[in-house]
Amino acid sequence: MIEYGQWPLEKRGILNEDFRVFHLKDRITKDVDYHYHDFHKIIIFLKGNVTYMIEGKAYKLRPWDTLIISQSQIHKPIIDPSEDYERIIIWFNPEMIAEHNREDANLLECFEVAMNRDNNRLRLFEEQLRKVKRIVNDFLEEEDSPAFGNDILKRTLLIQLIILLNRSILDINRRNPSIDVQFDQNINEIVTYINQHLDGDLSVGHLASLVFLSKYHLMRKFKAYTGYTLHQYIVQKRLMYAKALMAEGLRLTDVCQSAGFNDYSGFVRAFKKEFGISPREYLKVKKTV
Description:
This protein has helices spanning 94-98, 109-117, 126-143, 150-169, 185-196, 204-210, 215-226, 230-247, 252-258, 264-275, 279-288, and strands at residues 3-4, 19-26, 40-47, 50-54, 57-60, 66-69, 75-79, 85-92, 121-122, 181-182. It is an alpha+beta fold. The chain has two domains: 3-169, Regulatory protein AraC (Jelly Rolls, Sandwich), CATH 2.60.120.280; 184-288, Orthogonal Bundle (Arc Repressor Mutant, subunit A), CATH 1.10.10.60. Helix 2 (109-117) runs parallel beside helix 4, helix 3 runs antiparallel to helix 4 (150-169) and helix 8 (230-247) runs antiparallel to helix 9 (252-258). It is globular and about 55 Å long. It starts with a strand and ends with a helix. Residues 1-11 have low confidence and may be disordered. It comes from Pradoshia eiseniae. Keywords: DNA-binding, Transcription, Transcription regulation.
């Protein structure tokens, strides 16, 4: 089923199920804001003239390019409104997929590797692509089917797809991932440093010294490449990290410190401003889900 002329949900999306699949074809005339999600996302690009911005990198997409985007990664598409934009989007709860992990097979590894390598796009080999197309076609057929075991079959197809993406991204003989990718080396280094040092000194002066830029020049370039000010980006990442730590059962005072907030009251204010509820209220809601 193709849904025309609509986005799945609002800017950040809401995933109340374990996973959702959309096959969309439309013409987008308005700019899409930078955003992030609480779930993982796979985008399979089919048609159009689209460049996808993810964490400061610009990926010029070709048909059947696949993007793997982790929860909390900041991204947006830049879309040519004169052409149809067709894509398949899969949202899923990473905790659901993790339940199927084995000692020698972490199904979420492809998302972790993509973040660590700063490369969210896969351009598959012909044999891999043929398998992905088969899985996607089966998936879309099941979307409209009320047949017995429909949900179970879709889950197995999603797992098959993620296994293939893992095999592709872990293949050391894969083609050069830098083709059709544009980025600024300084901003790329800063983004990586921030995500690896959320509990450390992330002042503008310290970050600027790492790449030998003035504070003003760094702030201007960072906003141009990521769509966020440095302060917005750091707070956003610290809050998402705080949510992950809360899910692991850490005490809120420890979460505050580990996520890099200077004081507990500042952490609570930032959390409530972003998510609409306090950290304690958030924990209560999580326990009832």
